[in-house]
Write a structure and sequence with these properties.
Elements: H1 3-37, H2 41-72, H3 76-109, H4 120-141, H5 144-152, H6 154-174, H7 179-211
Helix pairs in contact: 1-2, 1-3, 1-4, 2-3, 3-7, 4-5, 4-6, 4-7, 5-7, 6-7
C-alpha cells in the first residue's frame, strides 16, 4: 500500500478516536448534570470513575500523534492536522475533568433539597454538548464558517452563567441559609462556562488546521 494511503488511513483513525473522545465528553457532561438535577449520587460516582477512560483515550491519541510526527515527518497541512487534533483532544479531556467537578458538587450537595429548580444549568449543558458536536464536525469537514458559528454560541453560555450568578447572589442576600448550596451551584455554573471556553478552543484549532493561522475566539 502506498505511503500516502497509509498516512491517510492513520489520520482517519486519529479522527475516529477524536470523535469517540468527543462522545465520551458529551456523555460525561450530560450524566454529571443529571446527577445534580436528579440528585443521583450513584450516577455522580459513575461520572467520576468514568474519567479514567477519558484520560486513557486522550493519552492514546497523544501517543498516536507523536508517533505520526516522528515516523512520517509531515509538513504543512498534514502537520497542522496532527497538532490541531492533539490540542482538540486536550480540550475534550479538560471538558471531561469539568464534568467530574460537576459530579463532585452533586456529591457535596447530596440529598439536601435543592434551593431552586435547575433550569439554566441544563441549558448550559445542552449548549456545550451541541458545541462539541458542531466543532468536531467542522473539523472533519474543514468548515471554518461552522467553526465560527460554534464559537459564537459561547456568548449564550456566558449569558446564562451571568444570569445564574445574579439569581444566586440575590438568593444569598435574601436568605443567608442558602449561601452554602448557592456557592456549590455557582461552582457548577462556572465549570460549564469554562467548558464553553474549551469548546471555543476547539474552533480555534479548526481554523488553525484549515488556514494555518491562530485566532483568539474567546
Amino acid at each position: 500500500m502506498p505511503t500516502r494511503q497509509l498516512f491517510d488511513q492513520a489520520l482517519d483513525d486519529l479522527n475516529e478516536k477524536i470523535f469517540r473522545l468527543g462522545d465520551m465528553a458529551r456523555s460525561q457532561v450530560k450524566d454529571a448534570m443529571t446527577s445534580l438535577d436528579k440528585q443521583d449520587l450513584e450516577l455522580a460516582n459513575q461520572v467520576i470513575t468514568g474519567d479514567l477512560q477519558v484520560n486513557e483515550l486522550q493519552a492514546e491519541i497523544e501517543e498516536q500523534c507523536m508517533l505520526l510526527i516522528a515516523t512520517q515527518q509531515p509538513f504543512a497541512k498534514d502537520l497542522r492536522k496532527i497538532v490541531g487534533n492533539f490540542k482538540i483532544s486536550i480540550n475534550l479531556e479538560r471538558i471531561g475533568d469539568l464534568a467530574v467537578d460537576l459530579a463532585k458538587l452533586s456529591l457535596r450537595i447530596g440529598n439536601e433539597k435543592l434551593i431552586k429548580p435547575l433550569i439554566d444549568l441544563p441549558r448550559m449543558v445542552e449548549l456545550v454538548r451541541e458545541m462539541i458536536t458542531q466543532g468536531l464536525m467542522a473539523g472533519k469537514n474543514e468548515n471554518t464558517e461552522e467553526a465560527l458559528a460554534m464559537a459564537a454560541k459561547d456568548d449564550i453560555v456566558d449569558h446564562l452563567y451571568n444570569q445564574i450568578f445574579s439569581e444566586l447572589l440575590i438568593l444569598m442576600i435574601e436568605d443567608p441559609k442558602k449561601i452554602h448550596q448557592s456557592t456549590y451551584l455557582l461552582f457548577a455554573a462556572r465549570a460549564l462556562e469554562r467548558a464553553g471556553d474549551y469548546c471555543t478552543n476547539i474552533s480555534e484549532e479548526v481554523l488553525y488546521i484549515v488556514a494555518g493561522k491562530r485566532e483568539d475566539l474567546n
